[in-house]
Amino acid sequence: MTAASLNVKPAYLEISNVWKAFGDFHALKDISLDIREGEFVCFLGPSGCGKTTLLRAIAGLDLQTRGTIRQGGKDVSTLPPSQRDYGIVFQSYALFPNLTISKNIAFGLENTKRPRAEIEARVTELLKLVGLPEQGNKYPAQLSGGQQQRIALARAIAISPGLLLLDEPLSALDAKVRTHLRHEIKELQRKLGVTTIMVTHDQEEALSMADRIVVMNHGVIEQIGSPTEIYRHPATLFVADFIGEANKFKATAEKGSVSFGSKTFKCAAHSFDAGVSVIVAIRPEDVIPHGPGARSPGAPDVVKEPANLLDVTIGEMEFLGSFWRTRLRGADLGDETLIADFSINAARRLTLTEGTALTVELPEERLLVYPGGQ
Ligand code: ATP
To answer: What's the confidence (pLDDT) of residue 260?
Structure first.
């Protein structure tokens, strides 16, 4: 089947078997990845995982040691940045302090030898596009951080590049501005349809902005997927742990189930042989509270006869605005604590407070099973 018959756009950027060594250290280890035209992809991972190195290889700012990079069907692997087709925004705005905002935006356009009137019209259009139509005659120092980053964005897209590269563009900004700009950048990217790669270590940023997230760790790709795939079906324990919260328990695989603490829990298909040590993870919001004595099918939360029930007592409760984070303990958990997030409504309905004894369900389809455990 071809890409066209699947109604999927062909790859615009093809990264094949890319390695990057700094001396003996391999910052990238055999990275392969296709990015489709118009996609918004985030490289997400902890500090030092190689995301900036990969972005710089794509930009030609630092060549890969091995492997190829093709953009729009053309091999750009060894081309200098000036011969590649992209715009880039860095964390530190990197505007020219001695040039006006208009001149900053016009910078790349000047080299294209377009008529002055056309350049001016384009700058006016870009200033409007990033919501700063009146600021053209100011200097960078006269703008706020968020405004400067909008200008850096305008400058990056001025020549309508095929690829937009964003290197932690929001991390120098305060939380409110960051959330606002997140939304604006995403909207702008959709409007322009420009293929975009953003490097970030902020999971919320990646989850809220990306069409697909590339999760990296120690120079390799751990998982590539949509935000919901990555969150709901983390391929590795690292991904489950790095994105969102996860309870983790050492467990033993059984046929169609896992046992940990002193209980056995049914669990959606896992591929481990019986007796193998595994790690079982569950997200705090996936723990369902059934309240004391609520084991009967008629109980408020019970849709089907629940399995995987656990009797627990609430240790501590922490109010986090839109939900309660609770620490649950119980005889079947041994020394372990189960963290569970309960909605405000559930907590009110079940009159949950510290010390309350209740029954919780660990839904079988929400139990994630990974290798390890010894
Ligand atoms: P951060 O979020 O902290 O920027 P990152 O995921 O972008 O992290 P990179 O900057 O890509 O990480 O670095 C990956 C690894 O390569 C790190 O261990 C870093 O120390 C190393 N590294 C990067 N640049 C160089 C260099 N010029 N010389 C030697 N080592 C380098």
So the answer is: 87
